Amino acid sequence: MDEPDINHRIWQVVAAVPEGKVSTYGEIAARAGLPGAARRVGRALRVLPGNSRIPWHRVINAGGRISFPAGSEAYERQRRRLEHEGVEFKLNGAIDLARFRW
Fold it and tell me: Which terminus of the chain has fewer Cβ atoms in its 10 Å neighbourhood, N or C?
């Protein structure tokens, strides 16, 4: 399977994450039939077309955190989008996966 096909499989799974929920890179990989390929999910999200409506912001790391450096523009954009959808962050910056995981 070539790269564009894998990207599309990953993007389809990410598109299915409901508003107000999050999923980890590893969970997305497993649902796309790529168990153990969490980093591959990150690569697919990095090449999303700029006009894409795929909710990339709903994908977080296994620790329940945004993967961008805290305080960066990308981190703040992702956090704002999640908060707008009702996802809450703990004081330590993590998301309660028991509550918000898809």
Answer: N
The CATH number for 72's domain is 1.10.10.10
| pTM score of the predicted model | 0.94
* Residues contacting residue 37 through CB under 8 Å, at least 6 positions apart: 29
pLDDT per residue over 43-71, tens digit each?
A: 999 999 989 999 999 999 999 999 999 99
Residue 101 near residue 21 (C-beta atoms within 8 A): yes
- What is the domain count for the chain? 1
Helices (H), 2-96: 3-15, 25-31, 38-46, 73-84
